[in-house]
Amino acid sequence: MYVLYLDESGKDDSWTEHNNFVIGGVAVHEGQVAGLVAALDSVQQEFFPGVDAPLHFHAVDIFKGKDKFRELGPERQTELLKRLYTRIGEQPFPNLTAFATTIDISAVNQSTQVLKVVFEDVITRFNTFMARQHERGHPTKGLVIIDQAHKDKYKAMFREFRVGGTRFGSVNNVVDIPYFAGRKDTRMLQVADLIAYAAFQYFEHQDATFIDLIKEKFNKRSAYGPLDGFKHITNDSGCKCYACNWRQERNTFRQY
Ligand SMILES: [Zn+2]
Protein backbone atom coordinates (compact mmCIF):
# COMPACT_ATOMS: atom_id res chain seq x y z
CA MET A 1 0.00 0.00 0.00
CA TYR A 2 1.02 3.57 -0.70
CA VAL A 3 0.24 6.36 1.70
CA LEU A 4 -0.12 9.83 0.22
CA TYR A 5 0.65 12.53 2.80
CA LEU A 6 -0.69 15.92 1.77
CA ASP A 7 -0.41 19.48 2.95
CA GLU A 8 -1.12 22.97 1.64
CA SER A 9 0.84 26.15 1.04
CA GLY A 10 -0.90 29.47 0.47
CA LYS A 11 -4.63 30.02 1.00
CA ASP A 12 -7.38 28.66 -1.19
CA ASP A 13 -10.02 31.10 0.01
CA SER A 14 -8.09 34.37 0.16
CA TRP A 15 -6.23 35.95 -2.74
CA THR A 16 -5.30 39.28 -1.23
CA GLU A 17 -1.85 38.24 0.03
CA HIS A 18 -0.69 35.58 -2.43
CA ASN A 19 -1.07 34.68 -6.08
CA ASN A 20 -0.70 30.92 -5.63
CA PHE A 21 -2.18 28.00 -3.75
CA VAL A 22 -0.53 24.58 -3.59
CA ILE A 23 -1.52 21.12 -2.44
CA GLY A 24 1.51 18.88 -2.36
CA GLY A 25 3.00 15.86 -0.71
CA VAL A 26 4.57 12.48 -1.04
CA ALA A 27 3.34 8.99 -1.73
CA VAL A 28 5.41 6.56 0.30
CA HIS A 29 5.32 2.78 0.27
CA GLU A 30 4.26 1.60 3.68
CA GLY A 31 7.51 -0.28 4.22
CA GLN A 32 9.64 2.80 3.61
CA VAL A 33 8.23 5.20 6.16
CA ALA A 34 10.63 4.19 8.94
CA GLY A 35 13.69 4.74 6.76
CA LEU A 36 12.62 8.21 5.72
CA VAL A 37 11.78 9.18 9.30
CA ALA A 38 15.25 8.03 10.35
CA ALA A 39 16.82 10.12 7.56
CA LEU A 40 15.03 13.23 8.82
CA ASP A 41 15.83 12.44 12.45
CA SER A 42 19.51 12.32 11.50
CA VAL A 43 19.21 15.84 10.07
CA GLN A 44 17.86 17.00 13.42
CA GLN A 45 20.84 15.42 15.17
CA GLU A 46 23.19 17.20 12.81
CA PHE A 47 21.68 20.64 13.40
CA PHE A 48 20.52 20.20 16.98
CA PRO A 49 22.90 17.71 18.57
CA GLY A 50 21.68 16.48 21.91
CA VAL A 51 18.05 17.45 21.29
CA ASP A 52 16.19 14.14 21.29
CA ALA A 53 12.64 15.46 21.46
CA PRO A 54 11.48 15.55 17.83
CA LEU A 55 11.47 19.08 16.45
CA HIS A 56 8.63 19.92 14.15
CA PHE A 57 10.14 20.70 10.74
CA HIS A 58 7.68 23.28 9.44
CA ALA A 59 9.18 24.86 6.34
CA VAL A 60 8.01 28.42 6.87
CA ASP A 61 9.08 28.38 10.54
CA ILE A 62 12.58 27.25 9.58
CA PHE A 63 12.77 29.80 6.77
CA LYS A 64 11.70 32.65 9.03
CA GLY A 65 13.69 31.47 12.04
CA LYS A 66 10.76 30.95 14.35
CA ASP A 67 11.20 29.53 17.87
CA LYS A 68 14.04 27.01 18.13
CA PHE A 69 15.18 27.62 14.57
CA ARG A 70 16.18 31.18 15.41
CA GLU A 71 19.21 29.76 17.24
CA LEU A 72 20.63 28.66 13.91
CA GLY A 73 20.74 32.07 12.27
CA PRO A 74 19.60 32.77 8.69
CA GLU A 75 22.38 30.92 6.88
CA ARG A 76 22.05 27.72 8.86
CA GLN A 77 18.26 27.91 8.57
CA THR A 78 18.60 27.79 4.79
CA GLU A 79 21.19 25.03 5.12
CA LEU A 80 18.79 23.02 7.25
CA LEU A 81 16.04 23.35 4.64
CA LYS A 82 18.43 22.35 1.89
CA ARG A 83 19.57 19.32 3.88
CA LEU A 84 15.98 18.20 4.41
CA TYR A 85 15.20 18.57 0.71
CA THR A 86 18.40 16.71 -0.17
CA ARG A 87 17.39 13.79 2.07
CA ILE A 88 13.98 13.68 0.42
CA GLY A 89 15.64 13.89 -3.00
CA GLU A 90 17.82 10.87 -2.21
CA GLN A 91 14.88 8.52 -1.71
CA PRO A 92 14.62 6.09 -4.63
CA PHE A 93 11.51 5.63 -6.80
CA PRO A 94 9.07 3.94 -6.30
CA ASN A 95 9.64 4.07 -2.54
CA LEU A 96 8.81 7.74 -2.58
CA THR A 97 7.23 9.86 -5.28
CA ALA A 98 6.08 13.45 -4.95
CA PHE A 99 3.02 15.32 -6.17
CA ALA A 100 2.17 18.99 -6.19
CA THR A 101 -0.51 20.94 -7.98
CA THR A 102 -0.41 24.73 -7.94
CA ILE A 103 -3.12 27.07 -9.11
CA ASP A 104 -2.37 30.70 -9.79
CA ILE A 105 -4.71 33.60 -9.48
CA SER A 106 -5.17 33.90 -13.25
CA ALA A 107 -7.06 30.60 -13.25
CA VAL A 108 -9.31 31.36 -10.28
CA ASN A 109 -12.89 32.21 -11.15
CA GLN A 110 -14.58 31.27 -7.91
CA SER A 111 -12.42 30.96 -4.83
CA THR A 112 -14.94 28.51 -3.38
CA GLN A 113 -13.94 26.03 -6.09
CA VAL A 114 -10.17 26.31 -5.70
CA LEU A 115 -9.70 23.64 -3.05
CA LYS A 116 -11.83 21.17 -4.99
CA VAL A 117 -10.07 21.78 -8.31
CA VAL A 118 -6.57 21.45 -6.85
CA PHE A 119 -7.32 18.52 -4.55
CA GLU A 120 -9.07 16.68 -7.36
CA ASP A 121 -6.03 17.16 -9.56
CA VAL A 122 -3.59 15.77 -7.00
CA ILE A 123 -5.77 12.78 -6.14
CA THR A 124 -6.25 11.95 -9.80
CA ARG A 125 -2.47 11.99 -10.36
CA PHE A 126 -1.95 9.71 -7.35
CA ASN A 127 -4.60 7.37 -8.72
CA THR A 128 -2.90 7.30 -12.15
CA PHE A 129 0.43 6.48 -10.50
CA MET A 130 -1.14 3.45 -8.82
CA ALA A 131 -2.86 2.38 -12.04
CA ARG A 132 0.57 2.39 -13.72
CA GLN A 133 2.05 0.36 -10.87
CA HIS A 134 -0.75 -2.14 -11.48
CA GLU A 135 0.10 -2.31 -15.20
CA ARG A 136 3.71 -3.08 -14.26
CA GLY A 137 2.62 -6.04 -12.19
CA HIS A 138 2.63 -4.29 -8.82
CA PRO A 139 -1.03 -3.93 -7.90
CA THR A 140 -1.44 -1.60 -4.98
CA LYS A 141 -3.93 0.62 -3.25
CA GLY A 142 -3.53 4.05 -1.79
CA LEU A 143 -4.51 5.82 1.36
CA VAL A 144 -4.58 9.58 1.83
CA ILE A 145 -3.46 11.28 5.05
CA ILE A 146 -3.99 15.00 5.55
CA ASP A 147 -3.13 17.43 8.32
CA GLN A 148 -6.02 17.30 10.76
CA ALA A 149 -6.21 21.09 10.88
CA HIS A 150 -8.01 20.86 7.52
CA LYS A 151 -10.20 17.90 8.43
CA ASP A 152 -13.72 19.19 7.86
CA LYS A 153 -13.31 20.73 4.43
CA TYR A 154 -11.47 17.73 2.98
CA LYS A 155 -13.82 15.12 4.39
CA ALA A 156 -16.84 16.71 2.79
CA MET A 157 -15.09 17.00 -0.53
CA PHE A 158 -13.72 13.48 -0.65
CA ARG A 159 -17.15 12.03 0.00
CA GLU A 160 -18.33 13.83 -3.11
CA PHE A 161 -15.53 12.27 -5.20
CA ARG A 162 -16.27 8.75 -4.12
CA VAL A 163 -19.89 9.12 -5.06
CA GLY A 164 -19.50 10.91 -8.34
CA GLY A 165 -15.92 10.15 -9.42
CA THR A 166 -13.81 13.09 -10.53
CA ARG A 167 -13.96 15.00 -13.77
CA PHE A 168 -11.14 12.78 -15.02
CA GLY A 169 -12.51 9.38 -14.13
CA SER A 170 -12.84 7.33 -11.02
CA VAL A 171 -10.40 7.25 -8.13
CA ASN A 172 -10.90 3.58 -7.44
CA ASN A 173 -7.31 2.86 -6.43
CA VAL A 174 -7.72 5.11 -3.42
CA VAL A 175 -9.24 3.25 -0.52
CA ASP A 176 -11.67 4.61 1.95
CA ILE A 177 -11.96 8.18 3.16
CA PRO A 178 -8.84 10.21 3.89
CA TYR A 179 -7.34 9.96 7.34
CA PHE A 180 -6.07 12.82 9.41
CA ALA A 181 -3.03 13.18 11.62
CA GLY A 182 -1.24 15.97 13.41
CA ARG A 183 1.68 17.55 11.62
CA LYS A 184 3.62 17.51 14.84
CA ASP A 185 3.07 13.79 15.25
CA THR A 186 4.39 12.52 11.96
CA ARG A 187 7.50 13.40 10.04
CA MET A 188 5.70 12.38 6.86
CA LEU A 189 3.28 15.29 7.04
CA GLN A 190 6.30 17.51 7.59
CA VAL A 191 7.69 16.14 4.33
CA ALA A 192 4.37 16.99 2.65
CA ASP A 193 4.64 20.52 4.03
CA LEU A 194 8.18 20.81 2.64
CA ILE A 195 7.04 19.68 -0.83
CA ALA A 196 4.13 22.15 -0.89
CA TYR A 197 6.41 24.92 0.37
CA ALA A 198 9.04 24.28 -2.33
CA ALA A 199 6.37 24.57 -5.03
CA PHE A 200 4.95 27.70 -3.42
CA GLN A 201 8.38 29.39 -3.30
CA TYR A 202 8.95 28.48 -6.91
CA PHE A 203 5.71 29.95 -8.22
CA GLU A 204 5.11 32.77 -5.75
CA HIS A 205 8.69 34.07 -5.48
CA GLN A 206 10.34 32.55 -8.57
CA ASP A 207 12.78 30.86 -6.20
CA ALA A 208 13.84 27.42 -7.46
CA THR A 209 16.38 26.76 -4.68
CA PHE A 210 14.30 24.08 -2.98
CA ILE A 211 12.30 22.66 -5.86
CA ASP A 212 15.53 21.96 -7.74
CA LEU A 213 16.63 19.62 -4.95
CA ILE A 214 13.50 17.47 -5.24
CA LYS A 215 12.37 18.02 -8.82
CA GLU A 216 13.28 14.51 -9.95
CA LYS A 217 11.11 13.03 -7.19
CA PHE A 218 7.89 14.21 -8.80
CA ASN A 219 5.98 11.37 -10.29
CA LYS A 220 7.08 10.42 -13.79
CA ARG A 221 5.68 7.76 -16.10
CA SER A 222 9.21 6.49 -16.79
CA ALA A 223 12.72 7.16 -15.52
CA TYR A 224 13.17 9.84 -18.16
CA GLY A 225 9.54 10.76 -18.46
CA PRO A 226 8.04 14.19 -17.88
CA LEU A 227 6.94 15.41 -14.47
CA ASP A 228 3.37 14.11 -14.42
CA GLY A 229 3.21 14.68 -10.69
CA PHE A 230 3.99 18.40 -10.92
CA LYS A 231 1.14 20.50 -12.28
CA HIS A 232 0.56 24.21 -12.74
CA ILE A 233 -3.02 25.36 -13.31
CA THR A 234 -2.75 28.77 -14.99
CA ASN A 235 -4.30 30.81 -17.75
CA ASP A 236 -0.87 31.88 -18.93
CA SER A 237 -0.60 29.82 -22.11
CA GLY A 238 3.05 30.79 -22.55
CA CYS A 239 4.21 29.73 -19.07
CA LYS A 240 7.68 28.18 -19.15
CA CYS A 241 7.72 26.72 -15.65
CA TYR A 242 8.90 23.15 -15.00
CA ALA A 243 5.30 21.99 -15.02
CA CYS A 244 4.05 23.75 -18.16
CA ASN A 245 7.12 23.54 -20.36
CA TRP A 246 7.00 19.88 -21.35
CA ARG A 247 3.23 19.96 -21.74
CA GLN A 248 3.52 22.79 -24.26
CA GLU A 249 6.28 20.97 -26.15
CA ARG A 250 4.10 17.89 -26.33
CA ASN A 251 1.16 19.90 -27.67
CA THR A 252 3.34 21.59 -30.29
CA PHE A 253 4.64 18.20 -31.37
CA ARG A 254 1.14 16.85 -31.74
CA GLN A 255 0.10 19.64 -34.05
CA TYR A 256 2.52 18.39 -36.65
ZN1 LIG B 1 3.47 27.02 -15.51
What does this structure look like?
There is one protein chain. The chain is of the alpha/beta class and 256 residues long. It has one domain: Nucleotidyltransferase, domain 5, CATH 3.30.420. Helices cover 45% and strands 16% of the residues. It has 8 helices and 6 strands; from the N terminus they run E-E-H-H-H-E-H-E-H-E-H-H-E-H. The chain has helices at residues 33-47, 59-64, 73-89, 111-135, 151-164, 187-205, 211-214, 242-255, and strands spanning 2-9, 20-29, 96-104, 142-147, 179-181, 230-233. It has a 6-stranded mixed sheet with strand order 5-4-1-2-3-6, with helices on both faces. Helix 1 packs antiparallel against helix 3. The mean pLDDT is 88. It binds zinc ion. Residues 232, 234, 239, 241, 243-244 line the site of zinc ion.
